[in-house]
Amino acid sequence: MTETTPAAPPVAAKKPHTFTHHGVTIEDPYNWLRDLGYPEVKDAEVLAHLDAENAWFEARMAPLQPTVETLLTEMRGRIKEADKSVPQKDGDWLYWIEYEEGAEYKKWWRRPVSGGPDELILNEVALAEGKEYFRLGALSVSSDGRLLAWAVDDNGSERFTARIKVIATGEELPDVIPGTLSALVWAADDRALVYSLANAQWRTDNARLHWLGTPVESDVELYHEDDEGFRVSAGLSANDEWLVISTGDHETSEVRLVPAADPLAEPLLVRARAVGVEYDVDVRGDTLFIHTNDTHENFRLATAPLANPGEWTTLIEGTDDFYLTGFDLFRDFYVVEGRVRGLDRIEVRYYDDPARIVPIAFPEASYEASLGDNPEWAMDKLRVSYESMTSPASVYDYHVADGRLELLKTQEIPSGYDASLYETARLEIAARDGTAVPVSVVWRKGREAGGPLYLYGYGAYGIAIGPGFSTTRLSLIDRGFAYAIAHIRGGDDLGRRWYKAGKLEQRTNTFNDFVDVAKGLIAEGFTEAGKIAIAGGSAGGELMGAVINSDPELWGAVAAHVPFVDVLSTMLDEELPLTPGEWPEWGNPIEDKAAFELIRSYSPYDQVRAQAYPPMLVTAGLNDPRVTYWEPAKWVAKLRELKTDSNELLLKTNMGAGHGGKSGRFEGLRETAEEFAFILAQLQVSA
Fold first, then answer.
1. Could you tell me if residue 594 is inside a domain?
2. Cα four-point dihedral sign 595, 600, 605, 611
3. Distance separating alpha carbons of residues 387 and 339, to the nearest angstrom
4. Which residue has the higher pLDDT, 624 or 243?
5. Which domain holds residue 603?
6. Using CA atoms, how far apart are residues 580 and 524, in angstroms rounded to an integer?
7. Into how many domains does the chain fold?
8. Are 152 and 136 within 8 A, CB to CB?
């Protein structure tokens, strides 16, 4: 131990702070960890505490560095470092992305369909040089193929700066738009860009028009949203004729259409917002296609005449069996995507024959499949992505005329991979209220019963966690772990009802499902109490916090990444970036006492108490606008104060990154290797 190596974990000071709502006063002695100058964090005491936690993390992880390096070498060995995507035609060009050997970031290329040299249109490697963090946001080529617009975030704050260049010469135009948080949409025959700015609260309440060659200060606001909980976005219709400006929150939406050639024209409102009604729109000729949940929670597809956009006629009925998640229009046919009993389904349908339905067939019983990049209006084959728990990611072209899947590329694993060595299963485990919860599990054949298990969960915002493939998880599976994904309520794995059953007043179903899945996997012989490593991030980090409070004895190790754990304080602070837009998901504890009491009853930070907790690794991002850094910092401070055990508790704050952790494909891999090394050590599994 050197003089600079800490001998003990940092102990955060306690400073008096209280707040009162609905007649209830709550003490929060770690509130001082929130720098009041956020998003700039300059408070010396706050920074000193985070630095001390990072030093403790480094000290405790130092003995595990050989394991981290071993795991990192394994994980990197499964990545084809010099790799490129399958080229896709868009107009007169074929586009693809490419990684060079050892590169953290990619390069964007194209070449003429008619033949000619390859052309580098954007070099992320060069743009990221010298930066601790780099993330490419929007990227958009003008319809004539001459100009490129792109946006970059170089500190993790998710505030992007947009730029434009002439592709052929590389000349950057003087047009620079700081503070964007949106797509970049070409309009007015490539003479203008439509974008959204993030306001001071990190909300996109606008759609703006920038005429090339004019000062940004003179940009025109095409639409402004007054509801502070709504977010605005813009895109193009499939035929590129209409600018689609959408606004909404987690349960309500509203869409306007503007001619792309004349973006200053009077917007056409499709249908006025109604609380609880979500819809999105595309256009073919004089007909609107509307995907909406107005008559069925699993959505229907309707049409309407452009001349009367609010007159919706059902094209595909909403049903309990088929969860209609989206659609794509093409010139000669359209495609719907959805899920049946939690499994992805893609159907080709025809405008002139509604009864003609052609599902795309896939070879396995459990898988993930989705449409890939299909940029053209007139398509005769569709780019499709496919993977499963045991099958690496594959890219296909689906030939519409004869229903044939043509394999174009399968993810290559240089160090080797034999799918026949692994088994997978999709189980159903009964939750305490009798609800059957799906679980996807993969393990190596010959694994001993009762061994270690890694259980992942999310369960929020209607986001499904599919049974996909991962090369990194092989480092655990090959060491005797089973790897399981709990498809708990709060996600929409089994349809919209599944999502609703895990939000607002039913939020605790999410936590109960996760615990009951773990107990069910123990009963099935997959593992034993204390041998389960659990992980989740963001809202999944909230899940981690809830289940360690309720059932700490089940878990042998916990990884909570950028965890949303100070739920009550955050939902009470309408000045925070996300809060107003989150009330439809969690409830509004400012106005609703019942919501206040419910959130307080499960908020992980508020429910920390004097008991033994499992070993924990917690991560945060100083510039994170989604889950602010002080949530995990406060949580860890309170855990250090109250927990009665001597188990490991580590907090790592990325001081130059945000919600997604470090950027770059290998830097991100190192963080996964650190998590796995921590888990192996805590469960005493040989590295």
1. yes
2. negative
3. 15
4. 243
5. 42-76+417-683
6. 42
7. 1
8. yes
Q: Provide the pLDDT for residue 1.
A: 44
Rounded CA gap, 674 and 683, in Å?
Answer: 14
Nearest to 460 by CA among 438, 488, 430, 485: 488
Say whether 125 sits in a helix, a strand or coil: helix
Contacts of 584 (CB under 8 A, 6+ apart): 229, 249, 250, 251, 252, 504
Q: Which of 199, 203, 206 is nearest to 178 (CA)?
A: 199
Strands (E), 114-199: 119-123, 135-141, 147-153, 160-166, 172-180, 185-187, 192-195
Q: Classify residue 29: in a domain, yes or no.
A: no
Active site residues: 538, 624, 659
Domain CATH code at residue 564: 3.40.50.1820
Q: Rounded distance, CA 559 to CA 674, Å?
A: 10
pLDDT tens digit sequence for 456-472 = 999 999 999 999 999 99
- Residue 339: C-alpha distances to residues 26, 372, 427, 682 (Å): 44, 17, 17, 38
In a domain, 236, yes or no: no
Rounded Cα distance between 319 and 327, Å, is 16
Place of tokens 């130059």: 656
Does the structure show a pLDDT above 90 at 155? Answer: no
Q: Which residues of 141-176 are buried (b: 16+ CB within 10 A; e: fewer)?
A: bbbebebbbbbbbbbbbbbbebbbbebeeeeeeebe
pTM, two decimal places: 0.93
- Taking the C-alpha atoms of residue 287 and residue 648, their distance in angstroms, rounded to an integer, is 60
